[in-house]
Design brief:
about 230 residues, alpha/beta, Glucose Oxidase, domain 1, nine-stranded mixed beta sheet, about 30% helix
């Protein structure tokens, strides 16, 4: 990893976070709902999955960039993160070595961290999957990491194809992880509630027998699948 200039710290300690009230509100929504109303952007690649399908997480991002197989910067992130933060690690998708295990997860949970989202491998998966601390990762590997290569903490990262800035909202559940830019969270939550209400109404209508969406034929004509005047 290239050496930072003397004017740029590798560890940024003070970041502006999405507010606890907005985190609490966002935690009520599925990641899929938030992703839809955010323009179907901000989702991490599907290789990043919860260790158990019941795991959910929501909170402001503390971002970490590491060289594959080295977790020194993650230890630094644990030292500067605040209760409620989600540590998001750009591990380059590498699965040759685990970046965290039970010891680091226990440390994180004990200090109030909300969860880990790691584009890389983890280990001690049996213990972690049966625990209560949310961990999302790209894979598993029993090989342990090194702790000798410089990384970065609380600078923008690209994790599993999603851009993540420090303090952005991170929400994860059984479907995966979505990241919402901090400045956009309040607007997205309004849209999310409208979508939840609309979907509830549509599901109720389907159960009453309205099984064909009203927009279907229009879109089929626009796509050239139905001729003008043709019906299903």
């Amino acid at each position: 990893m290239s050496t930072l200039s003397h004017n740029t710290s590798a560890i940024v300690r003070d970041i502006e976070r999405v507010s606890p009230a907005l985190v609490e509100a966002a935690a009520r929504f599925q990641a899929a709902i938030l992703a839809d109303v955010a323009g179907r952007r901000g989702t991490l690649n599907c290789r990043v999955k919860p260790l158990a399908p019941t795991m959910k997480v929501a909170g402001p991002a503390v971002t970490v960039e590491v060289r594959p197989g080295d977790n020194l910067a993650i230890h630094a992130a644990l030292a500067v993160a605040k209760p409620g933060d989600v540590i998001v690690v750009d591990g380059k998708g590498d699965q040759s070595c685990a970046l965290i295990g039970e010891i680091m997860a226990t440390q994180a949970q004990t200090t109030g961290i909300a969860g880990f989202v790691i584009d890389g491998a983890v280990r001690d998966s049996h213990e972690l999957a049966h625990g209560t601390f949310p961990i999302f990762s790209a894979g598993l590997n029993p090989c342990g990491p090194t702790k000798s290569v410089a990384g970065r903490v609380n600078l923008p990262v690209s994790a599993a194809g999603a851009t993540v800035h420090p303090g952005d909202l991170v929400v994860g559940d059984a479907d995966g992880v979505v990241v919402i830019p901090r400045a956009d969270v309040e607007r997205i939550l309004v849209l999310a509630q409208k979508k939840v209400d609309a979907e509830a109404a549509r599901i109720a209508a389907i159960r009453k027998g309205d099984t064909r969406p009203g927009w279907l034929e229009k879109e089929l004509r626009a796509a050239g699948m139905l001729a003008e005047g043709e019906a299903l």
